[in-house]
Amino acid sequence: xxxxxTTNAPDSPAATPTRPLAADLLSLTKPRxxxxxxxxxxxxxxVAGSPSLLTVFIVxxxxxxxxxxxxxxxxxxxxxxDDVMARTRSRPIxxxxxAPQAVMAFGVxxxxxxxxxxxxxxxxxxxxxxxxxxxxxVFVYTRWLKRSTPQNIVLGGAAGAFPPLVGWAAVTGTxxxxxxxxxxxxxxxxxxxxxALALNKQVDYGRAGVPMAxxxxxxxxxxxxxxxxxxxxxxxxxxxxAIGMLGTPYLVxxxxxxxxxxxxxxxxxxxRDSGEWSAPAWKLYKYSLLYLALLFxxxxxxxxx
Amino acid sequence: xxxxxxxxxxxxxxxxxxxxxxxxxxxxxxxxDLLFYIVAALxxxxxxxxxxxxxxxxxxxxxxxxxxxxxxxxxxxxxxALEWTYAIVPAIGLALLLVFAWRTMxxxxxxxxxxxxxxxxxx
Lengths: 305, 123
What we know:
heterodimer, A: flat
């Protein structure tokens, strides 16, 4: 459909590949990424209490619209670098299938609809937190940190950590230390997860001039930090047990899942000097997605045993 | 006696914090304390190593000569003070989390520190 040769040519329909508009709108929301965000939204709802299916459904729809809107606005602001990175060149704007203004309008409309849905049918706190995640992603990560510091993923990871706060607030109407703890688990999961990908996309990020950690600090320091962040993450996942928020079944799951995560980070770290870290980094990246979903599922299961 | 009293209050509070089910398998208080100490130690050590690695990364940057196949070298930021701020803010957040977590675990201890508990409590 679209390939690396596709150029940014919105004024030349002949060069613009055809694709259904609905498919492009869906791709603007980055549905694969959002699926994990929805898991980290829904599971905390069941940790916080016993929500009705209708409430869960509304939060899922609102969460999808908000995150999808943020992703669309992100594509608007990043359209210049999306065009030079192989990974993002086939997106609707750089491939010329959609006008930037249309993408921006879609993103804002989607976020506005989400705010109304969550505020009207769930509670104001949920809407405020979801909107906070939107602003954090668009302005703190995309506009401020992404192109200015290798710490972009560390601090920008806060944007992806809002879903547990949103899910918790949807059930309790408030935020407390337990929901902040879930927020921090996602926050500290982000660096080893994303740097495992960034290690393998250094050429792309270098071409775009984005100072991801491997590009600015070097692979050795990045891999070092991936290991330390993994240790920190696994330690943090045990804290809910210490404060009496979750019990022994979750503790067992957190130790098993975390142990495997640490093993993955260790396998990458072991190859940091040999240069053979690419394959273990890919494995860690893929496992990290499964890890977060299973960890949050274990929380919900433990809470209702 | 004070420890018994604290244990009594913590287990009661734990039940209050979990209205869904009162039969959940929670970790006993001494074990929870031990777990907290282990978590705090791991977090402190790993955070220190992260800061050390950040300092090395800022000062040395990528070794392009050692990584000829990695052509994506991007110059690091020049504002070192700002970079340190970015690095330290999450560490401060973690320290605050540990303080609040400890206070959540031991509200009863703090309440009874200055009060002599009745002899029947904890029996």
